[in-house]
Amino acid sequence: MAGNYLVRLLLEQMIDSANSAYLGILERWVYEGLIDDPHDEFFIAENKSLQKESLTQDYDAMCWRQRYSLKDDIPGWVGG
Q: What is the pTM of this model?
């Protein structure tokens, strides 16, 4: 808690603003299946050619598995 109070306050406001924007994108994707990412910063890629109407069975699971994927430049987990 040491340091310049005004600098800390500014940094907290910047972090809150960034979090709110990112969480807004995440929330729309999870609850509505929409990716509204004007700056291409979200970690999920969308296959827009796949429409939910084209899936004849098991819509929910098929849609999530086939329409969305991690972007290629996202690092994977390296565990051991």
A: 0.62
25 CB neighbour count, 10 Å cutoff: 19
Whether the CA torsion 22, 26, 32, 38 is positive or negative: it is: positive
Burial class of residue 62 (count of CB atoms within 10 Å of its CB; 0-12, 13-18, 19+): middle
Task: Please list the residues that pair with 69 across neighbouring strands.
Answer: 45
pLDDT tens digit sequence for 37-65: 888 888 888 887 766 565 555 556 666 77
**3-state DSSP: the chain helix, strand, coil percent, rounded to 5?**
50, 10, 40
What is the per-residue pLDDT for 37? 87
Average pLDDT over every residue of 73-80: 67
Domain ranges of the chain: 1-37, 43-73
